[in-house]
Amino acid sequence: MKLLKAFSQDEDGTILILFAASLVVFIGFTAVIFDMGRVSTTQSELQAFADNVALAAAGELDGSPDAITNAQNAAANFVTDRQSFGNGSNTLGSGDYTLSFLNALPANDNADPSPNLTTDPAEAFFAWVVVTPKDVSMNFVSALRTLTNTGSGPAVANVGAEAIAGFTVEACDITPLMFCLPSPSYTAAGNIGDLIKLRSGGNGSAWGPGDFGFLDPKKADLGSTCAGLSGSNLIGCLVGAELNVTKCFTQRGVDTEPGQKVGIEDAIFNVRFDIYKSTMNGEKNDPDYPAAPNVIKGIVPNGGGQCIGQNEQISPDTLPLPRDNCFATNSCANNRVGDGNWSNGLAPYMAANHNLTVTNQTELEAALDFSGVPNNLKTTRYGMYVAEVASAAGGQITAPGRAETGLAQCNTNPSQTGVRRRVVIAAGIDCTANPINGAEVGVPVEEFFEMFLTEPVGDDGASPPTLDLWVEVIGSAGGDGYGSAGTGGIFRDVVQLYR
User: Fold this and answer.
1) 3-class SS at 285?
2) Under DSSP, is residue 137 helix (H, G, I), strand (E, B) or coil?
3) For residue 332, what is the DSSP state?
4) What span, in angstroms and rounded, lies between the C-alpha atoms of 288 and 486?
5) CB within 8 A of 19, min separation 6: which ones?
6) pLDDT at 434 exceeding the cut of 60
7) Does position 372 have pLDDT exceeding 80, yes or no?
8) Could you give the CA distance from residue 286 to residue 456 in angstroms, rounded to a whole number?
9) pTM summary value
C-alpha cells in the first residue's frame, strides 16, 4: 500500500507529458501556418493574374464599336502568368478566367456586379474578371487530422480571385463648361460643323437639349493661373484665362453648377474677341487673357478708339461668321441645334470682309489658304477662320479700308494657343439619362467636345443673365478633334483597378 501511495503521489516526469502535449499543438500550428501560407501565396498569384487581365481589357474600353472585341483580344493575347503553389506549377492563360463587362459599379463594394452586365461596347466602362478557382492541397493539415483522429482524407482549399478595372478619360486645364447633348446618341465625330446655340436652363428647371452650365472646379482643383481667386474673379479666370486654369476632370463623373452663376457676364467669354468691358476691363493688358489672332466679329467700338467699351456698334462694312441656314427660318432642331449648312452666308461674308466673290467651297479653298486645315474641317466655319489667318500671314485679315482688321487692337499680347484661342472644351452630358436641375454631383460625361466660338456672347439684360453662346462642333477633344484642347489642355487615358 505504501508503495502504491508513493507512486500515485510521485510528480517526476510530469513535464514530459506537458511537453508532448505542447509539441503536438506546436506541430499542428506549424502545419496550419505552412499550409495557409501556400493558400495565401496561391491566392496572391491568382489575384495578380486577375488584376493584369482586368487592366489589359479595360485599356481597350474606349466606347468604339469594337471595344469589347479589342478588350477580349488584349486580355487573351498579352496576359499569361504562373501559378506555383497550387497543385503543381501551371501556366495561367485565357482558359483560366471569365471576362465580362459592366456599365456601372454597384455603390457597395461587396455587392454583386451582375445587374450591371452589358454587351454594348459603347456602355462597357469596366472589365470584370473572375479567375477559375484552383485547388490547393493542405498536406500537413491532412496529416494532423489523421494523427488527432479529427477527420480522414485530404484537406483541400479552393482558391479564386476576381478584379474589376475601368477606363476613363481625364481632361486637364480646360474651360470648365458642360452642356446637355441634343440627343443621347449625339457625338462630336458625327456632327462636325453643327452650330449650337447654348443657353442655361431656368432656375430650378430641368435642363433640356443644348442647355449649358459649368463644371465645379473644387473637385478638380485649380491651376496656377486661377489659384487664390474667388467670386467673380475666379469665374472670370476659369472662363476667360488661357492656360493653367484647372487641373483634371474625369469622364466618369463631374460636378455641375447652374448656367446662371452669379457674376457670369458676356465679357468673361468675350476677351477672346478682343472685348474687355465690365468685369474684364482690367484684363486688357494682361497676357493671361489674350485675344485670338482672328477676331472678326461684326462689332466695332462706338465712337472710335481701339477697345470696345460698354457700348459697341454694328460694323458698317464687316460681318460675323454666318449661322446655319435653318436658324434664319426657325427650322433648326429645338431652335437650338443646326445642321452645319451655312451656305447662304458664305457669299455675303466673303464679299463684305474680303471683297471676294465666293459662292461655294471650291471657290473658297481657291481664295484662302486651307493647306493647314484637316480635310474633315475644311467645310466648317472654323476651317475658314484658320485659313483666313494663314492667308493674312500676320497682316490685316480683312480687305483694306474695313472697320475691322481682324487683328486684336485692345490686348495685343500674342495668344499661346494661336487660332485655338476661340476653341472651348465642353463636357457633353446625356441629360435624359442623368437629369440635371442645377448643381449635381458625379454626373458621367459621354464625351468632351471641342467647340469653336463663332461670335461674341450676348447678354439679354436679365438678372442673372441668359447667355447665348454660339458654338460650332469641331471634334472630340483629345480624339478626332483638331488638336488637344482649346486652352492648351491635356487629355489622357486612365486605366485603374476599382476592386
Assistant:
1) coil
2) strand
3) S
4) 14
5) none
6) yes
7) yes
8) 20
9) 0.74
* Residue 499: closest CA among 18, 158, 74, 161: 161
Kindly state the helix (H) or strand (E) to which residue 77 belongs, with its residue range: helix 67-78
Q: What is the CA radius of gyration of the chain?
A: 33
Confidence of residue 15 (pLDDT cuts 50, 70, 90): low
Q: Is the pLDDT of residue 246 over 60?
A: yes
Cα–Cα dist 183/446, whole Å: 11
Tell me the torsion sign for CA atoms 106, 112, 114, 118.
positive
Q: What does the pLDDT look like over 230-241, one tens digit per residue?
A: 777 888 888 888
Cell of 34: 505552412
Query: Distance between CA atoms of 351 and 347, rounded to whole angstroms?
Result: 6
Q: How far apart are CA 497 and CA 499, in angstroms?
A: 6
pLDDT band at residue 334 under the 50/70/90 scheme: confident
Cell numbers at 484, concatenated: 488637344
- What phi, psi does 51 have (nearest 5°)? -60, -45
Nearest-angstrom CA–CA distance, 14 and 430: 80
Does residue 122 surpass a pLDDT of 80? no
Check if the beta carbon of residue 246 is closer than 8 Å to that of residue 449.
no
C-alpha cell at 386: 484658320
Is residue 403 helix, strand or coil? Answer: coil
The answer to whether residue 471 scores a pLDDT higher than 90 is: yes
What cell was used for 191? 456632327
Determine contact, residues 475/188, Cβ cutoff 8 Å. Answer: yes
Say what percent of the chain tops pLDDT 70. 76
DSSP for 161-226 reads EEEEEEEEEEEES---EEEE-SSTT--SGGGTT-EEEEBPPPTTSPP-TTBEEEE-HHHH-B-TTT
Q: DSSP secondary-structure letter at 246?
A: B
pLDDT higher than 60, residue 481: no
CA separation, residue 153 to residues 142, 150, 158, 379 (Å): 7, 10, 16, 78
Point out the least confidently predicted range of 23-27, 77-81, 95-99, 430-434: 23-27
Select from 300, 209, 220, 290 the least CA-distant residue to 252. Answer: 220
Q: What is the pLDDT of residue 318?
A: 95
